[in-house]
Amino acid sequence: MLLACSAAGAAPLELRLPSGPGATPVAASGIRHYPEAVQAIVDVLAGPLGLPVPAYRMEVHTEPAEFEQALVRHLGVSAETARQAGGFAKAAVGNRRILVNDTLMSRLPWPERLLTLAHEMAHASQLELARHRSLVRNQWLVEGFAEWVAFRVVQELGTHSLADERASMLRRVRGARDGPGLAPLADLDTLAQWVREREKRGFDAAYPYAYLVTDVLIERHGYERVLDYFRRHRAGGESAVHFQSAFGESMARFQQALDARLAELIK
Fold it and tell me: 159: left (phi > 0), else alpha (psi -120 to 50), else beta?
């Protein structure tokens, strides 16, 4: 699909994700354009992280209304949810496309754009693992794993220190816990719940929190188990069943273990 643009609007910049690492590594310090940014990220996703990279199309939208329309059309969310998400989402993935909200993205320096693009491209890898079955439940894990991958990508590219970023996230999640509070995972299940809780509790109780939750899950069960969780969606079925099968524990049991671990991490 190409989103229908208004007569006054500019058509989105379009490019295809490369299928694998490039012949020559891209120096992150010199990145100034989307194609070279995408290639640098793919080099890490398909290389050290061993993730599949689907032949998705990236669309860079310069008009906010067009980005919101893309969310409705490709993610199947309501117009109201799209309006809410469009106010803070710099990019999203749906219908084999990565949709970039350049109104917000262009305000960032390129190292931060790399982080955001890596997050969305990790979503594409999740969907490829699931053979494009729906991943509409357990949004805390869908978003948290994308964050987890993204920070490892930028660590590999040399634009961020993972140790420093993790320390920052611990501080931010501690502040969120002591302020608006942290939602139970059951309240971060659907996309609508995720958007609502993000608006209610703030950014730090959403993305940094989801990163730490995923980090605890990987610490507890290993990276490959998370990939297995996404692969289990290939045959359809309930995400709760896939979670139990992949990790050998129920969501309720993991919530208990998470609460205990976070109490140690963010004293």
Answer: alpha
State pTM to two decimals: 0.89
For 111, other C-beta atoms within 10 Å of its C-beta total: 15
> How is 167-204 classified by DSSP, letter by letter?
HHHHHHHHHHHHTT----GGGGSSHHHHHHHHHHH-GG
**Is the separation of the CB atoms in 53 and 125 below 8 Å?**
yes
Chain mean position to CA 33: 21
Tokens of 256: 């208990």
Spatial separation of the C-alpha atoms in residues 68 and 83, rounded to whole Å: 6
**Closest listed residue to residue 140, CA positions, set 52, 44, 258, 23:** 258
What token pair was written down for 30? 């010199």
- The model's confidence at residue 7, banded by pLDDT at 50, 70 and 90, is very low
Q: What integer pLDDT is reported at residue 75 of this predicted model?
A: 81
Residue 183 in tokens: 């939602």
Among 261, 138, 250, which Cα is nearest to 194's?
138
Backbone angles phi, psi at 94, to 5 degrees: -170, 145
> Is 38 exposed, middle or buried, given 0-12, 13-18 or 19+ CB atoms closer than 10 A?
buried
In 3D space, the residue among 148, 141, 129, 125 whose CA is nearest the CA of residue 190 turns out to be 141
* Tally of helices (H runs) and strands (E runs) in the chain: 12, 4
**What is the separation, in whole angstroms, between the first and last Cα of the chain?**
48
What pLDDT, on a 0 to 100 scale, did the predictor assign at position 127? 94
